[in-house]
Structure to design on (185 residues):
């Protein structure tokens, strides 16, 4: 049968597979090593699918990092959803730092690639800003806006220390640091 007579394969999850594959490629090769060809191979799709579903590499990177940031924000939102007191909120936030943020090497690398991309290219900062806003919103019922900013920054710093230090901090230190910021008295 000639190529023109072949039926088109129905693949409704193709775009999502490409986005997820892009994150895998970023984790393995970094943003600088991410190409349409590598992502297409990782997603097991024809190279032409890349330009069919995305306007270019920036569009694909944006979609991939938006998905990653959404997943990260959803984790802290789930942790914080049942908190009704400041102590419960601090416990939940500490658990998020200790158990959810940068837990795998893949997550650590992807998040650092996002931060580096946003640092180099301001047009990607809406992704990091949106993620931070969602994290801070989980703290809003319990602390003032400035304290939420500080707690969110501590979140990233303590998670980085846990992920990158050869002797990471204990969970009690994380909870203690959050308490000091939330209750400075």
């Amino acid at each position: 049968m000639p190529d023109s007579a072949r039926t088109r394969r129905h693949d409704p999850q193709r775009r999502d597979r490409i986005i997820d594959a892009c994150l895998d490629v970023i984790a393995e090769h970094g943003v600088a090593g991410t190409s349409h060809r590598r992502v297409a191979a990782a997603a097991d799709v024809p190279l032409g699918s890349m330009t069919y579903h995305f306007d270019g590499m920036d569009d694909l990177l944006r979609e991939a990092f938006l998905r990653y940031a959404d997943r990260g924000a959803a984790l802290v939102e789930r942790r914080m959803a049942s908190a009704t007191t400041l102590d419960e909120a601090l416990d939940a936030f500490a658990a998020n730092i200790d158990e959810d943020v940068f837990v795998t090497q893949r997550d650590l690398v992807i998040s650092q690639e996002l931060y580096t991309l946003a640092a180099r290219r301001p047009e990607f900062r809406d992704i990091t800003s949106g993620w931070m806003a969602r994290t801070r919103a989980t703290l809003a019922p319990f602390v003032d806006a400035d304290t939420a900013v500080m707690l969110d920054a501590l979140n990233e710093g303590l998670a980085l220390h846990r992920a990158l230090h050869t002797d990471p901090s204990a969970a009690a230190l994380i909870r203690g640091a959050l308490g000091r910021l939330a209750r400075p008295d």
